[in-house]
Amino acid sequence: MLPAKNIIEVITHLDDIINQSIAKKSRAGYFACLYRKMTIAVQNGINDGLFEDGQRMEKLDVIFANRYIDAYFCNLNQTPLTFSWKSAFDASLQPYTVIQHLLMGMNAHINLDLGIAAAETAKGSDIQLIKKDFNLINNIIGSLINIIQKDLEEICAPMKLLKYVDNKSKESVINFSITAARNTAWANAVSLSVLQTNTYQGYIKNLDDKINVVARNIINPNFSQSLVLRTVRIFEPKDVGEILRFLKD
To answer: Is CB count within 10 Å lower at the N or C end of the chain?
Structure first.
């Protein structure tokens, strides 16, 4: 699969991944459904003049998306990929709850890929110039969490319980904070933007190792969280294709 060159091609690639996942009844498509919603929201923001520099934000969005698309096809073709994405795709083979699968993808993509994409977008210039638009993209990501929460509650009423699994932050679920992930992504973007070429990949490798620890915590929650998730799993639809079609719309 050739990398996407613009946001329209990103959406086309995501549609292909979702359609393949529906045909195969693969849980790997859950995150693609969420990501498609996010990409369309960013596209709308660019078209509406939301960002200071819409062209630059499309560049960031495409670099960001291509990291996920590349990881998806590396996994499909059994070629090397980051540990955090490998953990997410391995988890898709197991019947975890939908929210766990979504969070596994978000962990790899926000905690790892977003900072890298921002650093690459700003290469050759001051990364602080993109901070305002970076925050706007993160606001879009954050706003989608409430939409996805409502979608999941329609699939499975006990999902309402997950709002109370970890109430340290309004956006926390299963000890995964979207706010913390966004802040981490920016901190890593700033760090990567000033690294020498010979230390760049080493930084990413160390970061990937740390993010993979978060992935293990998502699929191995504590005892009380596990009880709630077990209840949710009992009531969730068993047809993966049905869930995918619901999440795509």
So the answer is: C
Positions of the chain with pLDDT under 50: 164-167, 171
Q: How is the chain split into domains, by residue range?
A: 7-248
Quick one: which of 96, 102, 105, 101 has its CA closest to 233? 96
The label of the residue with tokens 């766990």 reads 100
- Say if residues 163 and 210 touch (Cβ distance below 8 Å): no
Q: Please answer whether residues 179 and 171 qualify as being in contact, where contact means their C-beta atoms are separated by less than 8 angstroms.
A: yes
Dist CA 184 CA 26 (whole Å) = 30
Q: What is the pLDDT of residues 64-75, one digit of tens each?
A: 999 999 999 999
Q: Which residue is listed with tokens 């077990």? A: 230
DSSP H stretches of helix in 6-111: 7-24, 29-47, 54-76, 83-91, 98-106
Residue with structure tokens 């620890």? 213
Pick the closest to residue 22 from 243, 196, 249 (CA basis): 243
Asked if residues 167 and 177 have their Cβ atoms less than 8 Å apart, the reply is no
pLDDT digits (tens, 9 = 90+) for 100-146: 999 999 999 999 999 999 999 999 899 999 999 999 888 888 777 77
**Which position has the token pair 């993808």?**
105
